Amino acid sequence: MTKTALITGITGQDGAYLAEFLLKKDYKIFGTYRRLSTPNFWRLQHLGVLDQVTLIPADLLDSASIVRSLKISNPDEVYNLAAQSFVGASFEQPTATGQITGLSVARILESIKEYNTKIKFYQASTSELYGNGSLDLMSEKTHFAPSSPYATAKLYGYWMTKIYREAYGIFTCNGILFNHESPIRGLEFVTRKVTNAVAKIALGLEKELRLGNLAAKRDWGFAREYVESMWLMLQHDVPDDYVVASNESHSVEELVDVAFKTMNLNWRDYVRVDENFIRPLDVKFLQGDHTKIKEKLGWEPKTKFQALVEMMVKEDYSRWQKYQQGERFPWDAITYPNECNIISREYKLDK
Predict the structure, then answer these.
(1) Residue 237 in this model has a pLDDT that exceeds 50
(2) Is 92 a catalytic residue?
(3) Residue among 126, 152, 161, 195 flagged as catalytic
């Protein structure tokens, strides 16, 4: 029997990869997206799945919109991947982040409770929940200490997911995913910002890369592999919460070093630390422990850090080469502004 899935945020990195994964499992896919003046379907086009999914315009601030999406799709499973998902932007827009990333989870869960309690629900939680609370490997039992408006909003969503499981018997799971990257990652995230800049520098299109905290350490994995963990959680007999991670941690400086070496360049010749990119409060260290999901669901990552970074650099380099040769294809970088031209709320006006 064919299952149906509703994916909120289907146009994002995880949404697009999850749609691709579930289509291979013969799912019928519906996905919600925000109406924008400029459509953002390039990831679905890039993966060749746009014409295989049914898109529903929806707004997570509007409960009626969420109910309408459930009625249209009548899903067996809901994957909530939509959010204001950039930590840096949450400092500039804390209230909006709380509404979109936090309260929208309650709106979706309440809609499921009223529409059909048999629907299984996956909540995209995050390693940012841990903040600076631990310097050890972080598991499902590690204390949370959010260090940004984004993480605080996600913490609300995490607990609401558990509450609806325990109070109403709905099959809900939290996936506490550590950083997961890919060639279709958004350019506002440091991994893709780095790999895109390295590609442009190697081709003579840019001269430098400005970054913030090079010492911050993160647990990075490949997003295409991580979406399988979401599906596995909803196939298990018992709903539960799981850390999804690589069990390794690497600094931003290591990321930069590998990326530039991929193009046979020395990063010190091109990278500048810019205090405008340093967050008011930054998480110093994140490293997950995937023991539970490996033992219970049989999931573990395959792609290592260096291979992931090299893959992303080569893909960005290939795209810029094709663009220089006049090719047209689904892609984001050509329309993305240089971050140095964007003034954030933290910009110091007395400079």
Answers:
(1) yes
(2) no
(3) 126
Whether the pLDDT of residue 335 is over 90: the answer is: no
Give pLDDT, residue 8: 98
pLDDT tens digits along 262-279: 999 999 999 999 988 777
Q: Please give the DSSP secondary-structure letter assigned to residue 132.
A: T
The residue extents of the domains of the chain are 4-180+220-244, 187-218+249-281+304-335
pLDDT category of residue 351 using cuts at 50, 70 and 90: very low
Please report the sign of the dihedral spanned by the C-alpha atoms of residue 30, residue 34, residue 35, residue 39. Answer: negative
Same fold, 4-180+220-244 and 187-218+249-281+304-335: no
Neighbours of 335 (CB within 10 A): 9
Q: Is 126 a catalytic residue?
A: yes
Buried b (16+ CB within 10 A) or exposed e, 290-318: bebbeeebebbbebebeebbbbbbebbbe
Q: Are 176 and 122 in contact (CB under 8 A)?
A: no
pLDDT at 98 over 90: yes
* End-to-end CA gap in the chain: 64
Fold assignment, 187-218+249-281+304-335? UDP-galactose 4-epimerase; domain 1 (3.90.25)
Residues in contact with 169: Cβ distance below 8 Å, sequence separation at least 6, in sequence order: 117
Task: Please write the tens of the pLDDT for every residue from 46-62.
Answer: 999 999 999 999 999 99
Q: Is pTM, for the whole model, over 0.85?
A: yes
What is the third-level CATH fold of 4-180+220-244? Rossmann fold (3.40.50)
150 counts as catalytic: yes
Residue keyed to tokens 């499981």 = 165
Task: State the catalytic residue, choosing from 33, 79, 150, 226.
Answer: 150
